[in-house]
Specification:
Distance between the termini: 43 Å
Strand order of the largest sheet: 7-6-5-4-3-2-1-8-9-10
Largest sheet: 10 strands, mixed
Number of strands: 10
Oligomer: single chain
Radius of gyration: 20 Å
Shape: globular
Strand content: 5-15%
Number of helices: 12
Helix content: 25-40%
Structural class: alpha/beta
Length: 338
């Protein structure tokens, strides 16, 4: 049996959320009736640490809907020398809470922005959501916490990308992360937000132009299709599959509010529950993970594409959740979705 060390864990603290965003992979709104208790979450952390975990990200839903758990677990993570982050929509984050998180050693707070002003409000379904997000960033920065902003590119906001980049970098954040709308979870019910090929090319052209002069990390998250924004040499001599930079199912996993382990948050596949099994037994002895980890060839469309070496075939979760085939072409790829 091969042994795989986990490094990066995304823990969905709760399925509760104060918003109902159309791109939510978890279809978050109401909490689950049997979400992990604080003590169960602490036991989970120790189990994961034994298996190599270096970073835990508290996400959701909206993690701050369970503020008490976030704070107590944050203290526990800090005491055990495990780096942790909080990914939030910003609605519930104020200076007092940011201060408490700082005291508990949080390494970063990420706030999501999906447009400027009314564009963000419309996407998030709440008037004033944009202003609250900005206040959250300022509150975290005021406490000396590293801050990040995440942007999801949609059909509705792609023309705003240059202005969004200028605005976000002007805030003085420490990192800016971008990915396109992924059609899983609630996203599969809101296809109007999926950017078409022209929108993707336009957005990534803006991104490539802007990122050359940025002084902060600009992270393109899988599937980024960053080759759309620049001319890349065609490697005719080597058509081999080099694999995606995504490490889900290998060094990264997600854990649901009720303790199920998944390859990442975008997969619906549940591998095993930490209330019933030790993490190592789930992670090192699972047929679905074995298949994920042994992929050496994708669809003919991908294998014959000159850009495969750059994108690695896109997102395996997007491919699997939309086609049922781990090796299928990512349906979000703008080169095949025309």
């Amino acid at each position: 049996m091969d042994m795989w060390s986990i490094r990066d864990v995304r823990y969905q603290v709760t399925l509760a959320c104060n918003l109902s965003c159309p791109h939510c992979f978890a279809k978050a709104r109401q909490p689950l009736p049997d979400e992990l208790s604080v003590e169960e979450a602490k036991s989970m952390v120790l189990d994961l640490k034994e298996n190599g975990m270096k970073l835990l990200t508290m996400t959701g839903g909206e993690p701050l809907c369970r503020k008490d758990l976030v704070l107590e677990l944050g203290s526990f993570l800090n005491e055990n020398s495990i780096r942790y982050r909080v990914f939030t929509n910003g609605i519930l984050l104020d200076e007092e809470l940011a201060s408490k998180l700082k005291e508990r050693g949080v390494s970063e707070i990420q706030v999501s922005i999906d447009g400027l002003g009314e564009t963000h409000d419309a996407f998030r379904g709440m008037k004033g959501a944009f202003e609250r997000a900005i206040r959250a960033i300022k509150a975290a920065e005021g406490e000396g916490i590293k801050t990040a902003v995440r942007l999801t590119i949609t059909q509705q906001n792609h023309k705003e990308v240059p202005d969004i980049i200028d605005f976000v970098t002007g805030l003085g954040v420490d990192a800016f992360r971008v990915r396109p709308f992924v059609s899983v979870g609630r996203g599969s019910e809101n296809e109007k937000y999926i950017p078409d090929p022209e929108a993707m090319r336009e957005a990534f052209s803006y991104i490539e132009e802007k990122r050359r002069n940025l002084t902060i990390p600009f992270q393109l998250i899988t599937p980024s299709f960053h080759f759309l924004g620049k001319d890349l040499p065609e490697n005719k001599a080597d058509k081999s599959f080099v694999g995606s930079r995504c490490v889900c199912g290998k060094q990264l996993c997600a854990i649901t509010p009720d303790g199920w382990v998944k390859p990442c948050g975008y997969f619906s596949v549940k591998l095993g529950n930490l209330r019933e099994q030790k993490f190592a037994d789930i992670w090192n002895d699972n047929a679905f993970l074995d298949k994920m980890r042994s992929i050496d060839r994708l669809s003919d469309t991908c294998m014959n594409c000159k850009y495969l070496v750059y994108c690695g075939g896109g997102c395996r979760a997007s491919a699997y959740e939309n086609t049922g085939d781990l090796c299928a072409t990512d349906p979000l790829c703008p080169l095949v979705s025309q």
